[in-house]
Amino acid sequence: MFYDADKVMFSAGAVVFDQAGQRVLTVVDRRGAKPTVYFPKGRIEAGEVQEDAARREVEEETGVVCRLWPKMMGMEVRDSPAIGKTKVIYWYAASLVSIGVQRLEGHEMFTASWVSIDEAPHVLSFEQDKQLLGICRAYIEQEGYDHQTSPQPSSEI
């Protein structure tokens, strides 16, 4: 399939796990009638590599500094009629390093929240995010989980 470059937006994001590997970081967007819950992600800036964009977007949207795991978890292509573009999203898994300050842009109105990995499939708003979580969990089972020495986050950031 061919995509016109002017009609494609490249983004990157991450599924961030807490120190114990028992919770994942989500973004809760409360702009609509019903909150939308998803993993942090955002546009790759000019000259930026996708891994740097994933880390930057997680930190800006949630205040969480993370360390990406060595393998990209997947790539998602979705049509976004609201902006008239096709989004290509590079997805990573990551571990919590530290918690800092959330730096939202003017139009962004959401909070960050930690959700147990068992509860997450029931909370996430998008089927693709649920599939991504399944891929990450399978990777953990196959490769193991790299524990961090950083403090446990609270349920709300």
Automatic annotation (TrEMBL):
Superkingdom assignment: Eukaryota
Protein name stated in the entry: Uncharacterized protein
UniProt source species: Coemansia linderi
Lineage: Eukaryota, Fungi, Fungi incertae sedis, Zoopagomycota, Kickxellomycotina
